[in-house]
Amino acid sequence: MTQPHPPSSPSPDPAGATDSAGPVRGGFTSTRFVLVEPSHPGNVGAAARALKTMGFSRLVLVAPRVDNVQSHPDAVAMASGADDVLASAHVVPSLADALSGVQWSVALTARSREYGPPQMPPRVLAPHASGHATQGDIALVFGNERTGLSNDDVERCSVLAHIPANPAYSSLNLAQAVQVLAYELRLAYLGADAAPAAPAPAATVGTRAASDEIERMFVHLENALIALDFLDPANPKKLMSRLRRLFARSGLEREEVNIVRGIAKHILLKTKHDEH
């Protein structure tokens, strides 16, 4: 299996000279569009086309239902000239692999969730994406055409987004949803490029933790809470989901993740010592 582009890898610029110079270009090249278990090759091709029209090119496919989907005739036909984006799509076995190295991610969902990360409409989240994309890789995560994203997938992301469609008929095709978000991000990225430089912050912000670092923290923390008998794995009562939501609101930095893991490590050492 191939892996997503590393943050520093160059990417072709389908939008031409307008989208190929200046510091905000990092936004276009550091944004991944992730399709989780797409079922229909035509939607994959149409998504590639949607990305290219908006100046993006990083498409990641998580366990697509059709083998060799990039070369499927329906995908090639629907790509309609975005063959380069389609052919360079990276296939990975899991969402964890797709989010490796990502420091901010958005889960797109058609329905509200009782638990999960904070919610933002696309137009509100786009400026946030613009800021994060200049600091490192970000990802927009779209679910399967029929079932969408699982709760576990949603909880891996930093923010949850819902496209405010007509409530009487809110069904959006997968590629259409990709197009809407790519358009909103394009406007935000180009707007940030045209805006005057913001003053330097009064204090230096630490490096944001990557998705895989945060996931390891949650595993470590869960084990510590079980060892304390604070969390019953047979009856968890959404405790970890609530903690994920709490930490998602804070925007964890790498040093903060290390602090939480240090606490978890000492809890495990203490409880192990007490058992003897």
Sheet with the most strands? 7 strands, parallel
Quote the beta fraction: 5-15%
Report, as a whole number of angstroms, the end-to-end distance.
Answer: 45 Å
Helix tally?
11
Instruction: Tell me, briefly, the overall form.
Output: elongated
Strand order of the largest sheet: 3-2-1-6-4-7-5
Low-confidence segments: 1-24, 196-204
Q: Taking all residues together, what is the mean pLDDT?
A: 84
Helix content: 40-55%
SSE order in H/E notation? HEHEHHEHEEHEHEHHHH
User: Which class best fits the helix and strand makeup?
Assistant: alpha/beta
Radius of gyration over C-alpha positions, nearest whole angstrom: 20 Å
Counted beta strands: 7
Detailed description of the structure:
The protein has a seven-stranded parallel sheet with strand order 3-2-1-6-4-7-5. It is 44% helix and 10% strand. It has helices at 25-29, 41-53, 73-79, 83-87, 95-98, 122-133, 151-155, 174-194, 211-227, 239-250, 254-274; strands spanning 31-36, 59-62, 90-92, 104-108, 119-120, 138-142, 159-161. Helix 2 runs parallel beside helix 8 and helix 6 crosses helix 8 (174-194). The longest helix has 21 residues, at 174-194. By secondary structure, it is α/β, with parallel strands linked by helices.
Write the layout of secondary structure elements.
Layout: H1 25-29, E1 31-36, H2 41-53, E2 59-62, H3 73-79, H4 83-87, E3 90-92, H5 95-98, E4 104-108, E5 119-120, H6 122-133, E6 138-142, H7 151-155, E7 159-161, H8 174-194, H9 211-227, H10 239-250, H11 254-274
Parallel strand pairs: 1-2, 1-6, 2-3, 4-6, 4-7, 5-7
